[in-house]
Amino acid sequence: MPRYALCWLEYRPCDDRAYKDAVVDRIRTLWIQPGEDVVGFEIRDALSRLFHHVPGEGSTGDAGTLYVGTSDQAPVADRIPAGELEKLGDEGFLLKEVRERKGGSSLVLTSKTRRGLVYGVFYLVSMLQRGIPLEGISLHEEPAFPLRIINHWDNLDGTIERGYAGKSIFFHRNKVVKGLHRIRDYARLLASVGINGVVLNNVNVRNKALRLITEEYLPSVRRIADVFRDYGIRVYLSVNFMSPVYVGGLPSADPFDPSVKKWWAEVVARIYEYVPDFGGFLVKADSEFNPGPHSYGRSQADGANLLAEALAPHGGLLIWRAFVYNIQDWRDRKTDRARAAYDIFSPLDGRFADNVLLQIKNGPMDFQVREPVSPLFGGMERTNQMVEFQITQEYTGQQIDLCYLVPMWKEVLEFDTHARGEGSTVRRVVDGSLFGRPHGGCAGVANVGSDYNWTGHWLAQANLYGYGRLTWNPDLSPEEIAREWCLRTLTRDGEAVERLVDILLASWPVYEKYTTPLGLGWMVNPGHHYGPSPEGYEYSFWGTYHRADNRAIGVDRSSRGTGFTTQYRSPWRELYDDPATCPEELILFFHRLPYTYTLKDGRTLIQYYYDSHFEGAEEVKRLREEWLKLRKHVSPRVFREVLERFDRQVKNAVEWRDVINTYFYRKTGIPDEEGRTLY
Q: What's the sign of the alpha-carbon dihedral 111, 117, 119, 125?
């Protein structure tokens, strides 16, 4: 029995005889560029397992050949016009049917680089899995974002911060794992959806992880990097800003100290000796007890540029998280954590080195089920920016509750900042095109662990898959991505696929309904963040307050309150500032309102909350019933284990419903108009 699933690379044999015959006829012979063993293995493996087909080898010029090679190879250049090849970017690929001189046609898959070949081969495999005809194909694909990175929050002891799918696949008992077979299959999974970078370790760099940049661990880091390199993926490391003190024994980590600069330069040079294509560093500083440049009276730009200077001669990047805020006294009503990133970073625009990227969370708080898009994306025109999404479901069900997050991420990328007029979307900010920046991209906090299915919940694989596909091509719809994943992973039955897609698309709105709708957020159990606790963080120092009393709820973030709305460009500044024009799905993020406030549909705020939680709990039961109809269309193991998760989700939704509704009933004394049970 295999030790783990291969997700969308399982390659179930094709049961469509006509399609199988067409593929076998079209790929009778295979020519693979010499030395490209990885792409050769991947296409041969897929053809063998999908169609039980072993094509011939060589370049005969006969019809029915698939040519796979970079654009400088003669079999490619002889068949594709130079003008088409010149349009290829470094990671793009071209898949095209061509006419042979002897008559008939062949297929050419080409790119400028071997990385592009890897992406192209996996795209072809995806087409074969989904039964897409190859006749007349002429496809040119380029990734939308330069960087498409996965951030792992793995610790060297094997635990994973905010991990819900087992232990780390990289580390065990403060060592890199011995066997690399699972890491290789992970590299295959990531490359198959277009990922080009992986941060191996947790941004909270502590204990033995501090020494990943030393000779003690670099030989092991090299082993992992060698595996990922085969699939076009660069390795990055999270580092602690205080490493010169903690690791190097220096008295200071001051960015302006020459000895600190020298220490970092030597450390970086040593890393590149082991990993010549090392991607760079990810840093969390001056945040949640991680020290940073503020400790020395220096700015965030000063701190970032220190490490960027060390990386620059080697072509490395410094990714600096913008998740910086001060802890606060809950009695303080003037400080607003939502303002922090903009207040700290926007005055520094233009002061970061060209190889620095700010990694900005999609919302101003912390991966809640609904937040506005961070205003920082529209506020820094002279700084490279990345958007950070959380694939792991810290606040969205922890891979117990189903929550397909691709629709949320799509909304973020399409949000128009109006930084340079209409059409100034977050997508254009982070791909670098809006402000003409040299670097940009997306980062996703991984949801992967050592569980058999990688993600705890089988259907949570769709979030990992969807993150990769969306960051390669953000023009895809969440529905298209969900359908791709279902076809490749669970079943080819058309009716079953559509039922699965409907379940996935419904899951985020349903989760939002029974937790914290209207942008309220939080209300989770402190620490582990699963399940309801209406005042769990209300008297803490984290700045995550709703300030409910017996009359009203919410923080006034308008221009009359904390002023957070003023960080946005017009027209958002004005729209968010007025409850009458604020999008209602965010109204409790921006405004403090009485429970009797009337929403656009005529319901009071508190009645909406009652209704939403009752409806959400019932809709989870409906999703479970829809899953029961799929028993004959998915494997018994998948069916059984997903059903177990739905059973747990039903209980969790009921708990949320009863706790939140009872909390507001006791707080206000206002009954449910429908007379449903409140406790």
A: positive
Strand partners, 140: 94
Nearest-angstrom CA–CA distance, 312 and 279: 11
pLDDT in tens, 586-602: 999 999 999 999 999 99
Distance CA 237, CA 278 (A): 9
CATH code of the domain occupying 147-489: 3.20.20.80
User: Which residue type occupies 640?
Assistant: R
Distance of alpha carbon 538 from alpha carbon 521, whole angstroms? 12
Report the mean per-residue pLDDT for the chain: 97
Q: What is the DSSP letter of 661?
A: H
Amino acid at 330: W
Active-site residue (options: 154, 366, 431, 577): 366
pLDDT at 1: 55
Min mean pLDDT across 52-61, 202-211, 354-363, 656-665 is at 52-61
CA distance 446 to 152: 5
pLDDT tens, 517-566?
999 999 999 999 999 999 999 999 999 999 999 999 999 999 999 999 99
Chain segment 89-125, per-residue pLDDT in tens: 999 999 999 999 999 999 999 999 999 999 999 999 9
The helices-and-strands tally (H runs, E runs) of the chain is 20, 18
- Confirm whether 366 is a catalytic residue: yes
Q: Which one-letter amino acid corresponds to residue 28?
A: R
Third-level CATH fold of 492-555+592-679? Alpha-d-glucuronidase, C-terminal Domain (3.90.1330)
Note the pLDDT tens digit of each residue in 417-437.
999 999 999 999 999 999 999
For residue 361, list its beta bridge partners: 388
Q: What is the per-residue burial (b if ≥16 Cβ within 10 Å, else e) of 283-315?
A: bbbbbeebbbbbebebbbbbbbbbbbbbbbebe
CA count, 13 A, side-chain hemisphere, 668 = 23
Tokens of 374: 């961070």
Q: Are strands 356-361 and 317-321 parallel, antiparallel or unpaired?
A: parallel
CA 535 to chain centre: 29
Q: What is the pLDDT of residue 672?
A: 98
Paired residues of 56 in beta bridges: 29
Mapped onto helix, strand or coil, the DSSP state of residue 339 is helix
Tokens of 370: 């609904």
Give the active site residue among 141, 336, 394, 512.
394
Do the two domains 147-489 and 492-555+592-679 of this chain adopt the same fold? no
Is residue 604 within 8 A of residue 597, CB to CB? The reply is yes
Alpha carbon distances (Å) from 121 to 23, 114, 461, 474: 15, 10, 21, 20
pLDDT of 407 higher than 70 = yes
Query: Is it the case that residue 136 has pLDDT exceeding 80?
Result: yes
What span, in angstroms and rounded, lies between the C-alpha atoms of 381 and 595? 40
Question: How many C-beta atoms lie closer than 10 Å to residue 273's C-beta?
Answer: 11
Cβ neighbours of residue 407 under 8 Å, at least 6 residues apart? 478, 505, 508
- Mean pLDDT in residue range 488-507: 98
Cα separation of 612 and 531, whole Å?
17
Q: Where are the domains of the chain?
A: 7-141, 147-489, 492-555+592-679
- Compute the distance between CA of residue 638 and CA of residue 37 in angstroms, rounded to an integer: 33
Catalytic entry in 90, 288, 574, 578: 288
Q: Using a CB cutoff of 8 Å and minimum separation of 24, what contacts does 211-214 make?
A: 211/247, 212/156, 212/237, 212/239, 213/237, 213/239, 213/243, 213/247, 213/267, 213/270, 213/271, 214/247, 214/267
- Helix, strand or coil for residue 662? helix
Percent of the chain with pLDDT over 70: 100
For the domain spanning 7-141, the CATH number is 3.30.379.10
**pLDDT-based confidence at residue 152 (cuts at 50, 70, 90):** very high
Q: Is 480 a catalytic residue?
A: no
**pTM for the structure as a whole:** 0.98
